[in-house]
Design goal:
The complex is a heterodimer of chains A (about 180) and B (about 240). Chain A is built from 8 helices and no strands. The radius of gyration of chain A is 19 Å and the shape is elongated. Chain A starts with a helix and ends in a 6-residue tail after the last helix. Chain A has about 180 residues and is mainly alpha-helical. By secondary structure, chain B is mostly helical. Helices cover about 70% and strands about 0% of the residues of chain B. Chain B has 10 helices and no strands. Chain B is elongated and about 85 Å long. The chains are: A mainly alpha (about 180), B mainly alpha (about 240). At the A-B interface, helix 1, helix 2, helix 3, helix 5 and helix 6 of A face helix 2, helix 4, helix 5, helix 8 and helix 10 of B.
């Protein structure tokens, strides 16, 4: 049923039915804006969201209904966010970056160090991550993507995606831990 | 910090995500039972993972849609006049189909479903099963015949891949016609098993009507788009997508 609804909405957008593209925007912009904020930062996210929907408007003819419209838009948005990041970083083409701590470094604390994690603190901590592991963390832990999908979109191996995720989690743990336990 | 920690720590995330093999997971769990540091790390990463999942969508500024709207092309891609001429040759097919549809609709109403949609009038059911089934098959054949010109139109639209709107609409049409065809096939199969089943007959009639409605809406849409009348084409598109 949802596939039928998606095809109908895509067709109505293409036919220029009044209100159809706004319906598409209202339904999907919050998730895509959240993605953009976390991947490229809030400052650039608004411009990027507009680019995402302008690209969607141009490319809707390529939507074949073989995935949910939300998934199609999410992929489009992810690619545009990554292009944006690549243009900002000195890394050519790849968004993996070495961290100063060894991947999978053994735990140093003698027990759990995190209490209740405040959302605002977590958003702020994510924002401080290096682009490579931040991207993997957002796509995997926030958006629920599989390592295989992430590896494909980033042009890296599954193993690299996993190690980047682990690095991101260790960094976030350290960033969110009370100072006395760091 | 122990040697097992050094070996097992890189697996913590995989353990938390349930990605370790049963053997590795078992070994890791045994270590965690005896190592407070690794147990603490597991608990923290589980907590972190759970918190990350709660980070939901973020609403963009309310005026962003207005700003975006100004940047969108003013002409809907579907009614771009420049794209039409090469499709001109197929419109007559759509027009001929409308005539055939009239006959098919008459057959559905008068021969397949004589008096009401809920019960067949006894007078409309001749002795034996052959006559009503013939009527059903005739109606199915008429609907199929009426749909043929549209199949040609759809093919033409699908070939013109550069035309943004037509390919999208063709996909919707194709999906709806396919759905109606599947329902018709199911209805025919049910009637073959039990020719006297009122439910099966009604299901088939309903499927035939649906196909008729899709074709009818498609005809309206194609004709309106042909006339390059954006507003009427848009209204027709709404009718079609409701089909």
């Amino acid at each position: 049923v949802s596939g039928h609804v998606d095809l109908n909405l895509a067709a109505r957008c293409q036919a220029g039915v009044p209100g159809a593209f706004e319906e598409l925007y209202r339904a999907h912009s919050p998730r895509l804006f959240g993605l953009a904020c976390r991947l490229v930062g809030r400052r650039d996210a608004e411009d990027l969201l507009q680019d995402i929907f302008l690209a969607a408007h141009r490319k809707l003819r390529l939507y074949k209904g073989d995935a949910a419209l939300g998934t199609w838009l999410f992929r489009l948005a992810t690619n545009l966010c990554l292009d944006h990041l690549r243009s900002r970083t000195a890394h050519a083409g790849k968004l993996t970056d070495p961290l100063d701590d060894e991947p999978g470094a053994p735990p140093t604390a003698s027990g759990p160090v995190l209490g209740v994690i405040d959302r605002v603190d977590l958003e702020r901590a994510i924002d401080t991550l290096p682009p490579g592991c931040r991207t993997v963390f957002v796509l995997h832990d926030v958006e629920g993507c599989e390592h295989r999908e992430i590896a494909t979109v980033l042009g890296i191996s599954d193993g690299t995606s996993k190690s980047q995720l682990h690095k991101a989690r260790l960094r976030l743990r350290r960033a969110l831990a009370p100072e006395r336990t760091r | 910090m122990t040697e097992p920690c050094r070996t097992l720590a890189p697996q913590v995330s995989a353990y938390v995500d349930g990605e370790l093999s049963p053997t590795d997971a078992h070994a890791f769990a045994r270590h965690v039972d005896t190592c407070a540091a690794c147990r603490g790390l597991v608990q923290d990463l589980q907590r972190l993972r759970k918190a990350a999942r709660t980070l939901g969508p973020i609403a963009p500024a309310s005026d962003l849609w207005t700003r975006l709207q100004h940047q969108l092309p003013s002409d809907p891609p579907s009614v771009a006049a420049a794209a039409r001429p090469r499709l001109g040759g197929v419109w007559w097919l759509a027009a001929t189909a409308v005539v055939a549809l009239g006959a098919a609709a008459w057959l559905i109403d008068r021969r397949v479903l004589p008096s009401s949609s809920t019960e067949l009038a006894p007078s409309a059911i001749p002795a034996g099963n052959a006559a009503p089934l013939d009527a059903v098959e005739t109606a199915v054949a008429e609907i199929d015949r009426a749909a043929q010109p549209y199949a040609a139109v759809l093919l033409e639209l699908e070939r013109s891949a550069a035309d943004v709107a037509d390919t999208g609409l063709a996909r919707v049409l194709r999906a709806q016609l396919d759905a109606a065809d599947r329902a018709i096939a199911a209805g025919r199969a049910a009637l073959a098993i039990d020719p006297e089943s009122t439910i099966a007959r009604e299901a088939l009639v309903d499927a035939l009507r649906r196909k008729h409605a899709v074709i009818d809406a498609a005809g309206t849409l194609l004709q309106e788009v042909q006339r390059l009348d954006p507003e009427r084409a848009a209204r027709a598109a709404v009718l079609l997508t409701k089909g």
